[in-house]
Automatic annotation (TrEMBL), chain B:
Its main location: nucleus. Residues 741-821 form the ERCC4 domain. Belongs to the XPF family. It comes from Coccomyxa subellipsoidea. It is found in: Nucleus. Residues 469-478 have a biased composition (Gly residues). This is ERCC4 domain-containing protein. The keyword Nucleus applies. Residues 570-584 have a biased composition (Low complexity).
Amino acid sequence: PPSQQQINPNAVLVSKRQEGNPVLKHMRNVRWQFTEIVPDYQMGAQTCALFLSLRYHLLKPTYIYGRIKELQRAFRTRVLLCHVDVDDVVEPLAQVTKAALLNDCTLICAWSHEECARYLETYKAYESKPADAIQGRTEEDYLSKLTAALTTVRGVNKTDVLTLGGAFKTAAGVMRANMQQLSALPGIGPTKVRRLHETFHEPFRKTL
Amino acid sequence: MAHLLPFQRRMVEELLEDDGLCIMAAGLTWQRLAAVLIRLQLERRKDAAQRGVMLMPVEVTNEMLAAARVELYRTQSCLFITTRILVVDLLTNRLQAHQVAGMLVMNAHTVTDMSGEGFAVRLFRQGNQGGFVRAISDQPHAFAAGFSKLEKVMKALYVRKLFIWPRFEAHVKDTLNDLPIEVIELAQEMTPPMVAIYDSIADLLDVCIKHLRRSNKIDTSDFSLEECLFRSFDEIVRRQLDSVWHTITPQTKQVVNNLRTLRTLAEYLLCFDAVTFLSYLENLRAGESVNSVWLFQEAAHTIFDQAKKRVYELQQASRSAAMGKNGKRKRVVSKDIADAGTSNEAVEVVPTLEPLPKWELVKEIVQEIQEERQRLLKVAADLHGKDVPQEDEAAAEAALQTAQAPVLIVAQEERTCQQLRDVLQSDLQAVMQRLFNEYLLTRLDARKTAGKGKSGGGGGDSAAAGSIVRGGRGGGRFGRGRGGDRLDAVRAARIRNNPKEEQALLDEARALAASAAAKEKAANAEAAGRDLPEGQHATGRGRGSARGQGKRVTGGESPPLQSVPGSAGGEESAPSAAGFAAEDGSARPTGQDAACSPMLQGVMFHALESRNDGVLWDVQPSFVVMVDSDVAFVRQLEVYAAGRGKAPLRVYNLRYKDSFEQDRYMAALQREQRVFEDLIRSKGHMVLPEIGQDLALLWAELREGVLQPGVEEAIPGMVPAANAITRRGGMMQPKSKQPRKLVVDVREFMSSLPSVLHQQHMEVIPVTLEVGDYVLSPEMCVERKSLSDLRQSFLSGRLFHQAEAMSKHYKTPILLIEFERDKAFALHATSEIGSDINSNTLGSKLVLLSLHFPRLRIIWSRSLHATADLFRSLKANQDEPDAAAAALVGVPVGADGLPAGGGSESVVNTAAIDVLRRLPGVTEANFRPLMAAAGSLAGLAELPVEKLAEIMGSQASARKLRDWLDAVCPIQR
């Protein structure tokens, strides 16, 4: 057997242990290859994953502890990918959660093989992605920005944003609007009016 | 108590006799009952010095310092308090349960054993065995939702008596049927376009229901078109789908949303005027996703067509200016707007401006009432002073009173009230014209920004084109995949205005703006005593002056101060001369006008949505006009009439013929009756343990020393009650030495988790936390997110900042994702996973989060109880958290090295901060100074760019922010 295997840096490395795992069938968006590694999957230099099916955990409750211990301190992001494939989840999931939490693993739950595969793919694809997408940075055009800002207020939808924009012309105008002007708008009921008004006119922080 | 009606007196007596829950029909004035109970309490506790003084209960809110609250608890005998504050103060011993005489719980239908109210009652009952608990609700149907809801509520409240007061109860019936009100029912026909729209909406609802039926996920056997028109229909559908929500295709979800949209549309058709309805439709179209099912149906086309027809029609443009001047036009109003668009002729807009049919009716009624009042005044005057028999004197007095009492006009919405006020004091066409002018000018303003290209909308026609392209991009409607894109684009284009029509509307708007500007100029010129300049210099927006303009002028040339009736509007829409005279002028007189308009003399308005239930008693009207009807309000009328004795009350009830208004009203009555019958039945065979048993259990837990903070450890030899074990499911017997302390952010008391934690024998310490929601130990900190919170806070970037802060201050930062027990346990719908990596799914964002915060741990919790168990086991080998230390974490340190604000209490407007952080130019570095300097978002809107630059420390960011704030919102149509 070839001992010196070519390692593709763009592939998810998969441990031989995972052979026959149906999850592999669904890994289509990134390359993957079998190699000798300690974790089950390695999605980057600093990212690895252990795979655990809850059903298996019910059979061998100590398995996962042993696997985590084997990892030692080698990776920065250690994912415990848990396939939720039992109906009564509370008890086993609590055990798995505790195992992950007390042993420095990030627990990710997935409900199907497709979803498991998607998580592994995404970890690989996002290996060096900046955090912009979760920092509230939105598209640059005016309407998406206005929508992003105003829909922060609970219950306000896209149609309402257009109604508000149309009625008060500018974002500043919307912020200045008083109760009466707001309640004169079509489709915006008293609850939304109150919420909008509170958001714009109540101080950011009121020290008592 | 002298003025209580017989049945109200019985209600009070019942509730005074014993602790209990009182459920009454909507509109039977629960406020009255609550007021009497509170008054009795106040009177009883008066000391000698307060005799004869009217005491009022004090309101306790979160905007009050803790010390001030303690002082109030000490001195006041009766307080209104929010549940959150009550729970926090009971837990911190600021308020001690044994010092409370009793609790009066309003809106009892919201109580569960996990809700704030339930928590508060439990804490109260633990420390107080003798006090009373009385609960009131006027929403019987809330008790019909869910399995044995009634029993659960009563158990949570620790009450065993149930008092039911339906409208058909004998005492209520006797009292209210004694003096029936004089009701005049008026049925108004809808106009033909309204009927057409109404029918189309019904067709679309039908289409949506058929879709649902095909999805096989829902039991549609008893769905009917009529039922779709009720608000509760949404709830039924949602309830059926909730547990399988993750297996539902996006298309079915869309259908469920569409059903709701269509239902509100049917409501709005009856209460919005034609122009507002059209612009609402246009906003809806721009906001609706391309996956929408209804929008692409033939019937939707009809809705848009007819809605437009109520406002304007298109005709071929006149060939020469001369024809226009003569006012003679070739009226070739095309049947189909699309046809007009395809022909090569330029088109022109002709307003049709159909007023709302009910307006005319309201006008007539008010006219009639005013005449009646005049007549009564005359009668009174004739009789007065003359030597007449006693009874005539009394009659005169009564007539005078009736005539002088106000007229109350009742409508569902605030905006309807504002509009009716307008309608009553001016001509209908003038009102419509004003609305139409605003509609056109909005278009013009939006166009200007688009033209500047500043906001990315591109110039001119590309706005419309852009939206078509966008319409296509979504693709995949009905699972057709990307091949459907072009077809979608075509369909999308069909229901949008064609460019020619858009152009015509813009021309119209420009002409309007020009004439307004010319008018203003002329007025200025006249004031200066100079000659009139030629118009046409009009470039300004002319918005302020156009607002009050009662007529429309096609060109800038027309002499400003002379009316040219019908120069463009056509004969049928030409307003009456009187209307013009009243409305002409550059500014509409305001307050003054309202005072002298004879129609508005003594007329008052009430919006049902304002929920000001005391309005009848405050206003004391003798005439009531119900523009929209509502079961609760009719009941209030009955109670009000019964309290008035013989003084006459006349009620006009307006409704549209053959619309769902009447059906909805009748169905609401029937539903209530059914619910009450069910409640009475379940009262008969309800099984609840003896109250003593429940309380004994509670106190047994207390003696265990596991519930009350500050109570010493379990008393040795005390065996916990057998039930206490079953309640914990027989598992995890808490050991007395186990750490149990949890520091919880006070804002978290809005949710149910603290209540459950407390039920599960944790010691909950409320503190205002800057970082995290729950602190389990000096090392562990938890941020709780429900699924919808999670989605929202990924979008706003809030979660990123929270994770950052937690990682900075704690060794083990934890994100708790909380699923609801009765909803599906899954992050994604199966259909959402798709074939590619999609950066918009929750999963992808979670991956990104965990890559950026490798130390962040995630808890996936199936239910509140699972969370509580997990919290306990995580704490097992950890130290107890320190509340004081946790409170200081993340609080910015001031210049003196001490925490800024000195740890003082404050109320934070989270929503406003979220909005602020999403504004362009605002960054992590400058949002705190901005908050401090601006005060509020409204304050921010006023700051000039120089000031902003000073605060933000950057000219560029300041300019970016100010420009964005002042950019005119483009409208996609």
